[in-house]
Structures are given as C-alpha cells and as structure tokens.
C-alpha cells in the first residue's frame, strides 16, 4: 500500500476533529492509500507542538509555505479561519498537493471562484480537492439522499431546514474569530447556514435558484476574548464590535419547483447543534435532526391511511452508508464519524483518480447562495443565484 503524507493547518476544534479522522480512517476502513499524520502546522511553535503531541502528528511547521514545499506531504488539509482558505488552498494546489478545505469554502464569491478555477486546473493534472461539508457523511443523510433519488417521496414540494445553536446567546460570551467578518466572512449564515444549504441541495439533488433573506446581529458589542479556542473563550476587560450576523433566515426557490425555508442561528437557547431538515414530497416525507443523528424519519404517503405514519429508521445497519466498517447494528455513531467518512471518500477518490465531492465548484455554488442572502437582506429584494 502506498502512503499519503498529510499536512494539517490549524489545530483548534476543526483541527482536532480532522486529526481524529485521519488517525481513525485506516483503523476501521480498508483504504487504498494509508494516510500518514506527518506534519501539523500552526503559527505558535509551542502550541502547535503541544497539539501535535496530543493529536498524534509526527512533526510540526510554523509556516504553511514551508509545509507546501515538503516532499513528504501529498495532501494539505486546511482548517484555518476562512480568510486564509483561498491563499493556502490555491498555493497548495499549484504546488501539486491534494487539498481538503474546511467550509465555507471562502469568505467571498471572488475568492471561491479563484479556488474553483485552481481546483479545475489542478484536476487536469490529477490533483484532487474537496470542501468539508462533513454532515453529508452522516449515514442517515446518505439514506435520505438515496430515498429521494429512488423516488420514494415523489416530487419535492417543501424543503424546511434549520441549523440551531446557542453558544453565543449570552451577550457576555466573548468575541471569537467566528464573530469577525474579516476572519469569518459572515456569521451564522456562513458558519452553519452553509451546511444546510449544502445538505438540502445534496439530499434533494436540486439547486437553490433564488432567495429572499434577512440577517440580524442581536448583540452588537462583546468582551474581547482574553483566550479563545474552538467555540470556548474567556472574556477580557475590553469590548469590541460584532461584525457578522447572529442569525440568518431566508426563503428559497429550488430549480425543480420546491419552496424552501431556512434558518441559521446561534441564539436558539437550548438548541446545541440541531440541524433539522424536513422534506415533503408528493409521495411522502423525510425528517432529520442532528441532535438525534442516527435516526431518519420517513413517511410513506402511499400506505393505507389507517396505518400510515412516520417511520423511525435507525440508520445503523450495515446496509446504511459507512456503517458496516464500525459497530454491530444499533451501536450508534456520533459527530466525529462524519469527519472519518469524509477522509475515507477523499482518499478513495485520490486512489481512483476521480474528483471527490463536494468539489470546490460545489463550495462556490454554496458561496453564491450565501452572498445572495446577504444581498437580499441589504436590498430587501429577492436575489437570483448566478450560474
Ligand atoms: C460552530 O458553529 C461550528 O463548529 C461550525 O463551525 C461547524 O461547521 C459545525 O459543524 C459545528 O458548529
């Protein structure tokens, strides 16, 4: 078996999740290439070394350009804030490295366009790229997509999607990079709204064509973080402005005629990581909530009225996507498994010489939807999604 040298940039929340995925993938899946956790990269030498020791990386670098110059790195995994995605990913692709880039693909449509163009050029040279819309790899989501593709719910009429968190509902929760437009591009819209845009399009196999949205920033100023990592931080004495949206809502039209209602917020008190998707079709419905992520609810409208009702499918059978590699039926998967499935699919595509999905072009299309929601909120007009 050939080895695939991995270089990961970033070691906070996403860096840890990706590290676990690279480590676990060959332990549970039969892979055509073996990922080697060669280099962890971050700017602070001491902190990156501590993270490397904890997360299982062999060496460290403090300059991502040096990482790109190394012969023992064939794949660069970008887990930095959005403001550096384009520069790093494009340079990595040009250096002949495969790239996995965290979502949203970029902070602006222009950056995402440049990344998609670089990915297309690299693909012609056999270099692969993927954007990390991890939730696609939840088995129940894969099952939902399959049922839609098989026509089990017929023609889709309604798409209802919410991504609900509450980690900044407290007005004294400190500023993190996720609340800084320069770093993150947008707030709830890009951080979590991007996931439900991708997921609903993935499940339905359809695309959003127009949107009408509203954004709101409820808490306009917060304590500057004395320390911050992942979603947690401690408040310092100074205060600073929140420059992104706290919540985003939008209506959408899909290409094949469905109507969509979307909501992304970090102020849904009591909702920790609820990704709720309900799809109603002419022959039935599907419903999913990530807070109960092993379940898919399926309603078959063709069943006799006296026994029809939502069926609760536990997507933990070996026939469900990815499940056979893990535990016996019913032994449940969690948040981290999606990251492992993501790298399994990426490694497989690299070995097979095919472009994995979601591609940078898919990431660009999501970026266009996000930008259209922002434009709509500013103009108070419906906005079409170009392309
Ligand atoms: C924070 O809102 C966050 O970590 C997102 O950035 C991730 O994409 C999501 O998976 C969980 O929540």
From TrEMBL:
Keywords: Oxidoreductase. Residues 144-286 form the GFO/IDH/MocA-like oxidoreductase domain. Transmembrane segments: none annotated. Residues 5-124 form the Gfo/Idh/MocA-like oxidoreductase N-terminal domain. SUPFAM superfamilies: Glyceraldehyde-3-phosphate dehydrogenase-like, C-terminal domain, NAD(P)-binding Rossmann-fold domains. This is Gfo/Idh/MocA family oxidoreductase. PANTHER family: BCDNA.GH03377. It comes from Kribbella qitaiheensis. One of its GO terms (molecular function) is oxidoreductase activity.
